[in-house]
Design goal:
This protein has about 280 residues and is an alpha+beta fold. Helices cover about 25% and strands about 20% of the residues. The chain has 2 domains: about 120 residues, N-terminal domain of MutM-like DNA repair proteins (Alpha-Beta Barrel); about 120 residues, Helicase, Ruva Protein, domain 3 (Orthogonal Bundle). Strands 2-9-5-4-3 form a 5-stranded mixed beta sheet, with helices on one face. A 4-stranded antiparallel beta sheet has the order 1-7-8-6. A two-stranded antiparallel ribbon has the order 10-11. The structure holds a DNA duplex (14 and 14 nucleotides).
DNA sequence: GTCCATGTTCTTTA
DNA sequence: CTAAAGAACATGGA
């Protein structure tokens, strides 16, 4: 479930615990989560000290003293948590890094996530720019290269890195853009709104420590709070907070897509706005 | 049993 | 050849 705000929150909770700390024993309980396949991760990490923890797109990048690095991708259900060494090892725990006094454990039931050893390589390969420092003109240039629906284009990590199903739906609503709009047909004005909407949505989500719908927890085991502020995601049939029109849901590229038919019209220009922002609680 | 899920990548189709 | 659409991956919860 983790998109940029959730990954950022994991990095923020993990970094202060492990930076400058030394990894002791490494337990790899399931070796097919390691890439490249067959790489001896335990050997590479044992007795190494963590220099930094950062984020690139949805990747959690851990750099060791000596500048070798690896990244963890949480996939759909992955968690990277700090646990007491005495904690029971629950099902689907695939990797344990033993530090002095605590463990860092990677658990991922669906195993869409994993650990990628980079060595001296950068974590940038195949990644688009970071959305939080992407200029509108650059976003416009990138969107203009594809006829795909803007929602599909924004989910493409090579076009821009870090957005997923939740935040694309939320940002398109904030920008008043229909998800099926061909990416290359967006006006400069629309891309300007989209650029601001993406940044504002991500910043708010980070401030609220991400969204927990089902599986996501940060490194301290804490859930996010942004799901309570979603305007469209998982709100099909509920009134739009801006205009009270029921939010609609359809499937696009195998992903559920949520939008307000009044605020995000397919063709026509203007829209109605109702003064009331919220229905009673 | 059925459907659905915060992601990515491979395969198929146009 | 390229771009876009679909299927596949694996598990669990409603």
């Amino acid at each position: 479930m983790p998109e940029l705000p959730e990954v950022q929150t994991v990095v923020a909770t993990l970094a202060p615990r492990i930076v400058t700390r030394r990894i002791g024993r490494v337990e790899l309980l399931r070796d097919d989560i390691v890439h490249p396949c067959g790489f001896d991760l335990a050997k590479a990490l044992r007795s190494k000290t963590v220099q930094s923890v950062s984020r690139r797109g949805k990747r959690i990048v851990i750099t060791l003293v000596g500048d070798e690095q690896f990244y963890v991708h949480l996939g759909m259900t992955g968690r990277l948590t700090i646990d007491p060494p005495s904690a029971q090892i629950i099902k689907h725990t695939h990797l344990i890094l033993h530090f002095d006094g605590f463990d860092v454990r990677f658990r991922d039931p669906r195993r869409f996530g994993g650990v990628w050893w980079l060595g001296q390589q950068s974590a940038d390969a195949g990644m688009g720019p970071e959305p939080l420092d992407l200029r509108p003109a650059e976003l416009h240039r990138r969107l203009a290269k594809t006829t795909r629906a803007v929602k599909n284009a924004l989910l493409d990590q090579r076009l821009v890195a870090g957005l997923g199903n939740i935040y694309v739906d939320e940002a398109l609503h904030a920008a008043h853009i229909h998800p099926l709009t061909p990416a290359d047909q967006l006006s400069a004005d629309a891309v300007g709104r989209l650029s601001r909407a993406i940044k504002a949505t991500l910043r708010r989500a980070i401030r609220h420590r991400g969204s927990t719908l089902r599986d996501y927890l940060d490194a301290d085991g804490a859930a996010g709070g942004f799901q309570r502020l979603h305007r469209v995601y998982d709100r099909a049939g509920h009134p739009c907070h801006r205009c009270n029109t029921p939010i609609e849901r359809f499937v696009l590229g195998g992903r559920s897509t949520h939008f307000c038919p009044n605020c995000q019209p397919a063709d026509r220009r203007p829209r109605r706005r109702v003064s009331r922002r919220r229905t009673r609680a």
